[in-house]
Amino acid sequence: MARLCVVGMGYVGLVTALCFAKLGNSVIGVDKDINKLKLLSEGSPTFYEHGLDELLREGLEKGKLSFTNDINRSIEQSEIIFICVGTPPGENGRPDLSQVEEVARSIAINLKSYKLIVEKSTVPAGTAERIKQTIKLAGGEDTVFDVASNPEFLREGSAIADFSCPDRIVLGVDTSMARTMLKELYRDFDCPVLITDIATAELIKHASNAFLATKISFSNLVADICEKVGANINLVVDGLGYDRRIGREFLNAGIGYGGSCFPKDVKAFAAMAGALGVNNTLLKEVDRINEDRIGAIVKKIEDALWVCKNKRIALLGLAFKCNTDDIRESPGIKLVRELVRKGSLVTCYDPKAMDNARGELKNLGDVLSFAETPYVAASEADALVLMTEWPEFVQLDFLRMKKLMRTPVIIDGRNMLQAEEIEKIGFWYSGIGCHRGNRKSKFQYDN
Ligand SMILES: NC(=O)c1ccc[n+]([C@@H]2O[C@H](COP(=O)([O-])OP(=O)(O)OC[C@H]3O[C@@H](n4cnc5c(N)ncnc54)[C@H](O)[C@@H]3O)[C@@H](O)[C@H]2O)c1
């Protein structure tokens, strides 16, 4: 069993630390944020993710897990150091790698014996070389260490399951020592392990996220065409998805992708390609289509209500997707801002993300309110907009909703409701990429 130090206790770092501790390794979780460390040391997770609280308590109780802001001692006591700090968007779409650089400098001044330094943060190809250079410059030429890339593919909402049973593990290494140590660490995982050079591993992560984002933007482009020709995107993507070369996943049309990864990673990949003189038009277009989605939702509201000003809009879903409380780059949050800018009065509801949203949107004043239930949000509303695919939204009593609302308008940004049933109740229903009035059963396929 290995002695690990995981630097950065965010979504990726905390899950990494807990899962490796569960496997029997001794793990020190390091962060700069004292409040986070206090909560984690007390056994309280700092964000919502299914199964996190049990794993955290188990790791602490078994003595396999500890948390500290003392990076120097943590490095000294560990064999393998995982870098899991943030790589937020910087200037011109390029990622801001200052958190990674800061960790590299901390490592440099604490290298008293061999360490394996593993990048788990999503970074542009070539970053490991920068880390090596920084450590050598700050730590001296005779320091002994390896740098490896082990990109993380977990999805928020199913992070522990994704980490524990990944589709593949990618190990970018350039020494046999690094290869042996990482293969040993991952020996209990039952999935393909792809061993590559470091730049290839770094690139696989950016290319994966850019490809998934491309699928989503492609579906949204097709959805726009569907609306013009009276076709139904839900059936179009099913038709596409049955083709095994295409696959059905990540083809749902809707409000576009959000979260802390896809938007920044597509921009970063495009910026990197551009800087290298590679044509990045495709990536820029993927990003542009995505940015346009909020405008498309506003247009649907205006199609129904004519003007947004002074209208009461009930917005259900602030998390960027279901099963998380993460609101980073959330389309729901962007829509709130846009509606308020247009003079609407917005009432929001989300099962998990309300606290985060309250903090993020506190400067919007009393034109924005938060409701305790979806029904309270819908009271006296002129339109209801669904922005996150929380399963509980499908179960709502829409007859009750209709009675509570001022005008019966539903904009379904996730195509999650049965349009015909909603229309039967008497709603004006507008989904994405399905022409109003063109969803009759004769268009359903047999199976
Ligand atoms: N969130 C995801 O779903 C996901 C999935 C795969 C990969 N990634 C990538 O993983 C990386 C981390 O993402 P995240 O969502 O966990 O980020 P995050 O912002 O949630 O967490 C980063 C953490 O690092 C800490 N930190 C920053 N500088 C530090 C330092 N010098 N020393 C100690 N701690 C420091 C911050 O306080 C914060 O707690 C990013 O590169 C991201 O692109 C994220």
Describe this structure in words.
- By secondary structure, the chain is an alpha/beta fold.
- It folds into two domains: 3-196, Rossmann fold (3-Layer(aba) Sandwich); 213-256 and 290-443, NAD(P)-binding Rossmann-like Domain (Rossmann fold), CATH 3.40.50.
- Helix content is 44%, strand content 13%.
- Helix 1 crosses helix 3 (52-61), helix 9 (198-229) packs across helix 12 and helix 11 runs antiparallel to helix 12 (281-291).
- The radius of gyration is 24 Å and the shape is globular.
- Mean pLDDT is 95; it is low at 440-447.
- Bound molecules: nicotinamide-adenine-dinucleotide.
- Nicotinamide-adenine-dinucleotide (NAD) is lined by residues 7-13, 30-33, 36, 71, 84-87, 99, 102-103, 121-122, 152, 154, 156, 260-261.
What's a quick, concise take on this entry?
By secondary structure, the protein is α/β, with parallel strands linked by helices.
Task: Identify the quaternary structure here.
Answer: single chain
Query: What is the CATH fold-level name of the largest domain?
Result: Rossmann fold
For the record, the CATH class of the largest domain is Alpha Beta
Strand content: 5-15%
Small molecules bound: nicotinamide-adenine-dinucleotide
CATH architecture of the largest domain: 3-Layer(aba) Sandwich
Largest sheet: 6 strands, parallel
Low-confidence stretches: 440-447
Structural domain count: 2
The Cα radius of gyration reads: 24 Å
Task: Assign a percent range to the helix content.
Answer: 40-55%
Structural class: alpha/beta
**What's the N-to-C terminus distance?**
50 Å
Mean pLDDT: 95
- Relevant CATH superfamily of the largest domain: NAD(P)-binding Rossmann-like Domain
Q: Tally of extended strands? A: 14
Basic shape: globular
